[in-house]
Amino acid sequence: MPIKCPACQREYDASRFGSGPEIVCACGAKLGLGSEEVLSQLARICRQYDLQIEEDKLAEIKNAQDRIVSLIINTDYSAVDIEIEKAKFRELIQSLFPDKTHLIDLIYEPRFKRLWEQFRGE
Length: 122
Description:
The protein is mainly alpha-helical.
């Protein structure tokens, strides 16, 4: 990840900071891990990384949810097989967001039930 010099905006590889306490930019400015600007930039990078992890988890949930919807609408999977897939979906959400499992019953179950009734009519 790049770290920008606060004086000239030149970018440096953050991994270079592991070799010593400070780097002198080509413009003469000193960049070090104790520098407020560098710490601020590292904090921003960490937030971006955390956000990317969160987005990846959400994408995984969306893909699993889309798979169940597709199985209901486009296949002849039995109700038992769909319930197995929903149980796997519940386990996925519990592993990725343990404190949000209550949303399964509030958001996903009603949708799956509605789609089952609409497309299977059973």
